[in-house]
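Handout, section B. The chain below has 407 residues.
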Amino acid sequence: MANDTKGQSSSRRKFLKTSAVGVSLGLAGCSAENGQSTGDGQSGGGSTTSSDGQSGGGNTTSRSDRPKLTFAQAPVGIFAMTAQHLRDTGLLEQYMDEAGYDYELRETWDGPTLYASNNVDLFQGNPMEAVRLADAQGIKSTTFGKTMRFIDGIHMDASADHTIRETGSAKATMQALAEDNAVFGFAGWQSGDIPFHIRLLNEWGIPFGPDADTPFQMQNTSNESVAQLLVRGDVTIGNIGPHIPGYVEQILPEIKILPVYTIAEMATEVGYEAPLMFNSFTCRQESFEEHREGYVAFAKAMKEAFQFRKEEAEKIKQWDNIKDFTGQKTDRQNSFYIDWMDGKDLSAKYGEKYELWEHDRGYWTNPYLTDEIIAAHKKFIDDSVDLGYMMKDWRDYVEMKQVDEIK
């Protein structure tokens, strides 16, 4: 296969570049059952809250001639919970007002495309997404805060052979499934998390990647479809996570899907110093330099909201609209989802059979980027460059900043 001047696969880089914005950034946010983009920034049941005191799905106007920043985040899950807290308490308005800024908070699935088209100032994208946007459009971005760990990973049909309960490890399970030529459901080779799986599986002696003679039968599908495909036996393994609607109902009350590994828990297996970020605070470099105080104010409000989310989990479970936020159907499924996100002892509450789902908290309560976090992402991006997934000169476009004010 012909290589470009950066030593990367030309055809793959061209494909990734054209698919970097819109349908398949591959890394942004959490998926939703009804999270289709509408193009107006208000998809998936999202809403807009602004400093003029208005909430709703339409456009809003500033109450003054002060500078205004617009933030985008997913309309479900932990972000919906934090947004509810910000509305109930006026916390974001307080911080932004003290900094001298007006604001607009959009709860939408269109964050990446709105950011790419310069219609929002900040989206909850991670540095890897920022690199792909730079490759596609030349956008220079700053990531200055972390929110969600990369909690997606490989799961399998619970009725299939070679589960971790049988083999004793994720490595042994994946090796056995590779020998069986198992059917692997995934969102395509362009997905932004693929370089991680390539690194990990190659480390385990399993050929994997678009140019490799992989032993798996790869089946393209959407992340939202993986749970049903696993349950029906149409695929044996697939990339998914309990945060995706439709997953928890397949393990409660009856376990039909089992985890193999998550990207967060396997970070050290491939030499990364910290878990990778699924979501983070990302804005344009020029805007961050000009409006640093406004972005810091947003991060401070979000830090308090995430702390509230951690400390008041039981109270949040009782909210009238909480199932709308979590995408769960029953109180027990809703409780499991929140406890799973909080890294709770699931065995004690739901039974020993749920031990495999126990992991560190799925989100950070302190957005500050540690040295380890930054080092892990630089290494991951460099690894992705070596695999032909990202641009070689990414450091000219994407930076990760430590902001002492939110430490």
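Note. The chain is about 35% helix and 15% strand. Compare this with the example in section A.
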